[in-house]
Design goal:
By secondary structure, the chain is of the alpha/beta class. The chain folds into six domains: 39 residues, no CATH class; 132 residues, no CATH class; 169 residues, Leucine Dehydrogenase, chain A, domain 1 (Rossmann fold, 3-Layer(aba) Sandwich), CATH 3.40.50.10860; 180 residues, 3-Layer(aba) Sandwich (Rossmann fold); 312 residues, no CATH class; 115 residues, no CATH class. It is built from 45 helices and 21 strands. Strands 3, 4, 5, 6, 7, 8 and 9 form a seven-stranded mixed β-sheet that branches. α1 crosses α2. The longest helix is centred in the last third of the chain and has 26 residues. The protein is globular, with a radius of gyration of 34 Å. It starts with 7 loop residues before the first helix and ends with a helix.
Length: 1035
């Protein structure tokens, strides 16, 4: 070493971890003629346990290992003994070290030191494990055959049988399992300088890894180096999620797993399924400055991104090109996108530059939110999406928080994206308290206007904190207090706000009290889990940093919780809060807008990338167009948040009535291996029965989870059909993109690489948002049709009834009518659409040609909708008027009240169109005859009574639904028979003539109906009447 002697404490641990025992050391100072000083250290050593060492065989390997240790290319630990024990090179040792690091992240019960010992005690097996690895993954290895691997595995298994220690056996088998579960590795790839890469990446089939904690992603990539470790978990081949700079070195995979679980739910509204990644820089000094720490984190981030791209296929001229020097044990996999997360908000351009260096096909669509993308903080998109949920909660409580002052307690500070933007979304916000990791802010009686302006100022101030708040604007008794203080004095105003009587409290105790303070809204915009269920321990939560401030959900006294940030509450806490009447969704629902915005950005860039590549647009023009579309992209994203929270509210309105359908769907998913109720904290049958006895069903957080599972399940099912390729759905694909792209770039949109996935996502969201999570499962049970047939019928019914315009009109009623009235109108429309969907399944030949069938039915149904009140029977007209007057009395606009009142009779619209086509009669004449038949035979009363009756049990309800549908069908056939008797007769005369010709049977039916009116209806009674009416058809 130059200038100074090497301290023995620097080199002795390295030598000892190689397995050597240092007997003596002689330092020599050597000075060159020019005066430059070097130190030479001569060590006398032996093998630590006295084993002989063949230096001729080991010299080069030991020298390479020590040099790698000295230059920090390899970590100094007990694995290095394998150089002597198992004759491994230092790079081969890195394979085992990296696998060990992954196993520790995968929650193996053994410590690293214990696994080091197990490997060192079994060098022969370890050598063979490395040989298996080489056979599988060395591209140059011509002997990579099944026969060679089979022989080697047999030898390993025989050797394992001879291992005396059960722990050693288990550990060694876990290493073999990891090798088998590895799909790709960059171990044999060369770096840019032609040498080995300084990091190692493995791509795993997560479902093939033994004892991996649930839920298991589809695949994951683990990146290891002495400098950084990281993991990226993906729920599917097309997946999206952020990469975070984690501070949880011991269990960052656990952190990422919790986030990817939420991401799977969050991504139900977008094309990709959930993914999430996290990396931990390992060599940042404890006393590093902020800038130095940031510089090292960026370098580690680059390594992490490189480790991901090393194992990812590329697209060149729309052809999949695998990475060089790589063996693949999985199918083509070219779709990899990332996004910003905790600590990486400004890293997107860095990631995109790495992607460009790799020539990756997505270019700057690889990491959304860069300098030529949508800046989430500037757009405020995540907070705005969560605010849609908050507004809905309060709207359903009877308050418009955009016009009415409300009190808020917050987690975060104004410099943060989600917290800062969120606290500027209503000028009526009265922020009475907030906290972050540095300070506690309390303003017991804030002035809404003045405090709003001050929050605006702080949001614009770079790196602001609560200490920057103008103390002169804080109301009496409030203030900003450092969390490093030993105690904080409590003014009478703070005591009155919190209900505390103490004169002073420690900062953490004060935060706990604030979280339990009476307020309207609890807004999470910062990092951490602050609310758990009473039955959970802090260990269950896993966020050790916030144990001192965490409270139980039962202690909250707010009306609404808004989770703009991830993991503010545990799922059990959400359920506990909801059970006691609190308004809450899940973090995945509330803050889905960020990932939705990123997905739009990526898909837009894929379209424009092809346009730029064709020379029809320059890069600068593309960037300008992206910026010009910002507001419209935000609108498209926020509409998804609006629709998804509406869907949860509608399902919650009928949670008790839908309890059986919910249970059946959960059990169906469970049987298929798609849902683990325990992982998602969904209730067991016994608990649901207890809730039913109390008149309750699933809570909003549970409905949110079930809704996401329904969307993901339906999305995957659709991709296995040809429904996404339906020409009729092409317009929805085009409308997914902002208006400026829809005209000139239609062909580029139609050629989008993810066009099928986008179409499937849009349709799955439409079905589940509008019809509820159990719709497809329930219709399949009721009719026996498959997913493709049900979805085609749904689209035909939706378009034929022109439901989209109705939904738009209903949404326009926000803050104008009561949400109970508005919600019931939505549910009535849902029931209409359900009936007509089933009608198209049962009465039109399958598979449906969507476009042709809509062309047949839409016009005449539209005509009928405009005049149906003129044709109703007296019984149905009275019901129509009651519904219409009730809606008018609830301030529903006249036209919409009329349309909503017509939902019930419009359930027979398709029946009447079919009669019109069969008889050649006008639709108005058919309607007149149809309702007259129903009146004369009292079928209108019977159906209404059957629909309004209480039916016990799933199968009884299916039987009742089937008989109601049969009654409609029989009424249709009877109407056709009447109208074809004599074409010269008008509709009413035709029915009268038909009744006269069947007078005897009609009279008997009337007598039976009269008897029915005297007692309770039952499935058996309606079945008998059904048979009697059917007899009429055969007379």
């Amino acid at each position: 070493q130059r200038d100074e002697a090497v301290p023995l404490s620097d080199c002795l641990p390295m030598l000892e971890n190689i397995g050597l025992r240092v007997i003596g050391e002689h330092p020599y100072a050597i000075r060159k003629r020019d005066g430059e000083l070097f130190w030479l250290h001569d060590f006398i050593m032996g093998e630590a346990e006295g084993r002989p060492v063949d230096l001729a065989k080991s010299r080069g390997r030991l020298e390479d290992l020590f040099q790698a240790l000295w230059t920090r290319q390899v970590e100094n630990d007990g694995f290095n003994k394998l150089a002597l024990r198992a004759d491994l090179s230092w790079r081969e040792i890195v394979i085992l070290r990296a696998y060990t690091k992954f196993l520790r992240q995968a929650a193996i019960t053994y410590s690293q030191e214990y696994m080091e010992r197990a490997l060192n005690d079994n060098p022969g097996i370890v050598r063979k494990l490395i040989e298996v690895f080489t056979l599988r993954f060395d591209p140059e290895n011509a002997g990579r055959s099944d026969a060679a691997q089979k022989k080697l595995r047999a030898e390993i298994n025989a050797a394992l049988d001879a291992v005396a220690s059960l722990d050693d056996d288990r550990i060694l088998r876990r290493f073999l399992n990891l090798i088998d579960a590895t799909l790709r590795t960059n171990f044999f790839q060369s770096g840019a300088d032609g040498g080995h890469k300084s990091y190692l990446s493995f791509k795993f089939d997560s479902k093939a890894i033994d004892e991996l904690p649930k839920p298991r992603p589809q695949v994951e990539i683990f990146v290891y180096s002495p400098r950084v470790e990281g993991v990226h978990l993906r729920g599917g081949k097309v997946a999206r999620g952020g990469l975070r700079w984690s501070d949880r070195r011991e269990d960052f995979r656990t952190e990422v797993l919790g986030l990817v679980k939420a991401q799977q739910v969050k991504n139900a509204v977008i094309v990709p399924v959930g993914s999430k990644g996290g990396f931990v820089p390992k060599q940042i000094p404890a006393n590093a400055s902020r800038d130095d720490a940031q510089e090292e984190a960026i370098a580690c981030y680059r390594l992490f991104i490189s480790g991901l791209l090393d194992l990812t296929d590329n697209l060149v001229d729309n052809r999949v090109v695998p990475p060089t020097q790589l063996v693949r044990y999985d199918a083509d996999d070219p779709y990899l996108v990332v996004a910003a997360d905790k600590g990486t908000a400004t890293f997107s351009d860095i990631a995109n530059q790495v992607a460009r260096d790799y020539g990756f096909w997505l270019d700057d669509a690889f990491a959304s939110g860069g300098s030529a993308g949508y800046d989430h903080k500037k757009m405020g998109i995540t907070a705005r999406g969560a605010w849609e949920a908050v507004k809905r909660h309060f709207r359903e409580l009877g308050t418009d928080i955009q016009t009415t002052p409300f009190t808020t307690i917050g987690c975060g500070d104004m410099s943060g994206d989600v917290f800062g933007n969120g606290m500027l979304l209503s000028q009526q916000t009265r922020l009475i308290a907030a906290f972050d990791h540095r300070d506690i802010f309390i303003d017991p009686d804030p002035d809404p206007a003045a405090s709003y302006r001050e929050r605006q100022r702080l949001f614009a101030l770079p790196r602001s904190s609560w200490q920057d708040y103008d103390k002169g604007l804080i109301s009496k008794g409030g203030g900003v207090f450092s969390r490093t203080a030993k105690s904080i004095p409590l003014t009478p105003e703070i005591q009155n706000l919190t209900g505390l009587k103490s004169a002073a409290l420690a900062p953490n105790d004060l935060i706990r009290a604030l979280l339990k303070t009476n307020a309207d809204l609890l807004w999470f915009g910062g990092i951490g889990t602050y609310v758990k269920a009473a039955g959970e321990s802090h260990l269950d939560v896993g966020d050790k940093a916030n144990e001192g401030v965490r409270v139980d959900a039962s202690e909250l006294r707010v009306k609404v919780v808004g989770e703009g940030a991830n993991l503010g509450c545990t799922q059990l806490a959400r359920i506990e809060f909801a059970k006691k009447g609190g308004r809450i969704n899940t973090d995945a629902v509330d803050n889905a807008a960020g990932v939705d915005c990123s997905d739009h950005e990526v898909n837009i860039k894929i379209v424009l990338g092809s346009v730029v590549a064709a020379g029809d647009m320059t890069g600068k023009q593309r960037d300008r167009l992206l910026a010009d579309m910002t507001d419209e992209v935000a609108g498209l994203v926020l509409n998804n948040n609006y629709q998804q929270t509406l869907a949860i509210s509608l399902e919650a309105m009928q949670a008790y009535q839908m309890r059986d359908a919910h249970l059946r769907y959960m059990r169906s998913l469970e049987r298929q291996g798609k849902l683990d109720p325990a992982i998602e904290f969904l209730p067991k049958d016994e608990e649901l029965s207890e809730r039913a006895a109390a008149g309750a069903g699933l809570t909003r957080p549970e409905i949110a989870v079930l809704t996401a599972y329904a969307k993901n399940d339906l999305f995957q099912a659709l991709l296995d059909t040809d429904v996404p390729d339906e020409p009729y759905l092409a317009q929805d694909l085009i409308d997914y993109f902002p208006t400026p792209l829809r005209g000139p770039y239609t062909e580029a949109i139609r050629a989008h690489r993810l066009r099928r996935e986008i179409s499937a996502t849009l349709l799955a969201n439409s079905v589940v948002n509008r019809m509820g999570p159990t719709f497809v499962n329930s219709v399949a049970e009721e009719t026996g049709f498959d997913v493709a047939e049900i979805l085609r019928a749904y689209v035909v019914a939706r378009e034929s009834l022109q439901m989209r315009s109705c939904w738009q009109a209903l949404s326009a009623l926000d803050n104008k009518v009561g949400t109970d009235v508005q919600g019931q109108m939505h549910l009535d429309g849902r029931e209409l659409l359900r009936r007509v969907t089933i009608w198209f399944l049962r009465n039109v030949p399958q598979p449906l040609d969507i476009g042709a069938t809509v062309d047949i039915y839409q016009r005449e149904i539209g005509q009928l909708r405009g005049e149906i009140d003129r044709h109703l029977s007296a019984f149905e007209a009275a019901a129509f008027e009651r519904r219409r007057n009730d809606l008018l009395g609830s301030d529903v606009p006249e036209r919409l009240a009329w349309e909503a009142a017509a939902f019930e009779p419009m359930a027979a619209a398709a029946e009447m169109v079919l009669v019109a086509r069969d008889t050649g009669r006008k639709i108005g004449d058919v309607a007149c005859a149809f309702f007259k038949v129903g009146s004369e035979l009292q079928l209108d009363w019977l159906r209404a009574s059957a629909e309004g009756g209480v039916v016990d049990g799933h199968w009884e309800r299916l039987a009742m639904n089937a008989m109601i549908d049969d009654l409609f069908g029989q009424q249709r056939v009877l109407t056709s028979q009447a109208l074809i008797l004599d074409e010269k007769l008008g509709p009413e005369e035709s029915v009268d003539a038909w009744l006269a010709s069947h007078a005897r049977t009609v009279r008997r039916t009337a007598e039976l109906m009269q008897e029915m009116r005297t007692g309770m209806l039952s499935v058996a009674k309606i079945a008998f009447v059904n048979r009697q009416v059917r007899d009429l058809l055969n007379k």
